[in-house]
Amino acid sequence: MKKKVTSMMTIGMMLMGVSMTVWAASHMPPQVGATLPAMNLQKPADSGELKYLGLSGSGMFSPDQVKGQVLIIQIFSMYCPYCQKDAPNVNRLFGLIENNPRFKDKIKIIGIGAGNSPFEVNTFKKKYKVAFPLIPDGDFKIHQIVGEVRTPYFMAVKLNGSKKPEVVYSRLGAHEDVEAFLAEVVKLGDVR
């Protein structure tokens, strides 16, 4: 009897290990060198933000429709204290890009508010004076697609025109040294 219970426990542990491995694999963030998973995002209502992204109209868009060479995607939450603390740094990164003719039309930034409604995203945008588009993800669909990452999480995606967008940077954490982060994005994204 003891042998049978031990065997059943061993089988149970093996199944649990397999299911944890499958769960972990399905909940991994996009890896460098991989194609960015398909996602549909709500187009900004603001015409200036639409123009910034090279989009028009209303409805949904996918990251590969953004006009530029590299798209930086920040996964944030209005309630994340690290995101709140990092907001001035990300705003400074946006300013460094927009004020440099070498990068202005080549590198774009969007933020995706994990679990945040349009109201929550707009509250964050106003409070922290965010000038780039913030996209709500109230139902966590995008958050699930990107592996349920903690926040703030940053990805840089090389937009390859007719090819699929390639992840060139994927990491958790805020950026104190935005100049170094920008230099890394420029290098990894082969921005010319």
**Text of the CATH class of the largest domain:** Alpha Beta
Helix content: 25-40%
Total number of distinct structural domains: 2
Beta-strand residue fraction: 15-25%
Total beta-strand segments: 7
Termini separation: 70 Å
Strand order of the largest sheet: 5-4-3-6-7
The biggest beta sheet is recorded as: 5 strands, mixed
Q: Provide the CATH superfamily of the largest domain.
A: Glutaredoxin
Mean pLDDT: 89
Proper CATH architecture of the largest domain: 3-Layer(aba) Sandwich
Shape: globular
Low-confidence stretches: 10-25
Using only C-alpha atoms, the radius of gyration works out to 19 Å
SS-based class: alpha/beta
Order of helices and strands, N to C? HEHEEHEHEHEEH
